[in-house]
Amino acid sequence: MKIGFVGFGEVGSTFAADLASRQITGIDLVAYSPDYESTVGACKRIGGGKVSAAKSLSSAISSAVVVFVAVPCNASKAVFSDLSTFCGHGQMFVDCSSSLPEVKASNASVIESHGGVYMDAAIMETVSRHGIETPVLASGRGVSGVAKVLSELGMQVRIVGGEPGEAAAIKLCRSVFMKGLAALAIEARETSEKYGVQEAVFRSIEQSLGGADIQEYLEQLAVAAVRHARRQLAEVGECLEMERSVGVAGHMAQATMKLYSDLV
User: Fold this and answer.
1) Which of 66, 65, 68, 91 is nearest to 79 (CA)?
2) What is the CATH T-level fold of the domain 169-263, as seen in this structure?
3) What is d(CA 74, CA 24) in angstroms, rounded to the nearest whole number?
4) CATH topology of 2-163 equal to that of 169-263?
5) Of 43, 109, 124, 214, whose Cβ has the fewest other Cβ atoms within 10 Å?
6) In whole angstroms, what is the distance from residue 148 CA to residue 1 CA?
7) Looking at the domain 2-163, which fold is it?
8) Measuring CA to CA, which residue among 159, 132, 163 is closest to residue 16?
9) Catalytic residue chosen out of the listed positions 171, 179, 194, 258
């Protein structure tokens, strides 16, 4: 079974590396990104010749049963337009981008009009920690078959709706909170460090939240926010656009965007 990866950043390369390490018989892993040399380098780092780099989009997805599409949200529509040119009947496309629900719905229409099957896949945890077992919310028309294949590969898939965009809406609404929480953690840590009271501050926060041990969790959020600031800034931008499209002012999302902008 051939599995294609379109976009080979953190998500695509982590999924591919994890699948390669499992030594599943009969799978062929092929990766594509516009930067061919970078993709070759990433495949070499995985090692063992287990993942090959494609020179073109068409060769990456030709005959692939499943295609993971993990591209920046601002490139998503253009990429799916290109993919539709080479889409085969029954091919499964897993859209892992953090795009707006409306964009996911548009991507689905493009793929389905060419006979493909589209899954709106919302990644809900850190892929570097979970690999291919990263929990994913899925929605779309006829995604049960895609979910079955992904589950057999080890992915934790939960179908949340029959329309593309439903999973994306859940993820982005959640991101308003989670990315904002990370921003609060960064600001509280930075200020409390200046006064030398960081430990006391976070201990107090833990007590206010019922004694939960959250200091390590907030530290992880803050570190991830700094490390992936550019990508998370784009995601918060999608959150803000989604809020405004339904008449929500998005004051907190705007403030979160400002902090992430400062981190980039």
Assistant:
1) 68
2) N-(1-d-carboxylethyl)-l-norvaline Dehydrogenase; domain 2 (1.10.1040)
3) 34
4) no
5) 109
6) 14
7) Rossmann fold (3.40.50)
8) 132
9) 171
CA dihedral sign of residues 191, 194, 199, 201: negative
Which residue, chain included where needed, has tokens 């892993």?
29
Q: Where are the domains of the chain?
A: 2-163, 169-263
Task: Output the tens digit of pLDDT for each of the chain's 264 residues.
Answer: 999 999 999 999 999 999 999 988 899 999 999 999 999 999 999 977 899 999 999 999 999 999 999 999 999 999 999 999 999 999 999 999 999 999 999 999 999 999 999 999 999 998 988 999 999 999 999 899 999 999 999 999 999 999 999 999 999 999 999 999 889 888 888 899 999 999 899 889 888 877 667 777 777 878 888 888 898 899 999 999 999 999 999 998 999 999 999 998
CB 29 within 8 A of CB 51: yes
Contact 2, 26 (CB under 8 A): no
User: pTM for this one?
Assistant: 0.87
Query: CA-to-CA distance for 156 and 158, rounded, in angstroms?
Result: 7
Distance CA 23, CA 19 (A): 7
Calpha distance 253→237 (Å, rounded): 8
Q: Scanning the structure block, which residue is given the tokens 């529509």?
A: 77
Token couple for 206 = 């833990």
d(CA 35, CA 42): 11
Quick check: is 50 catalytic?
A: no
Other CB atoms within a 10 A radius of the CB of residue 150 amount to 22
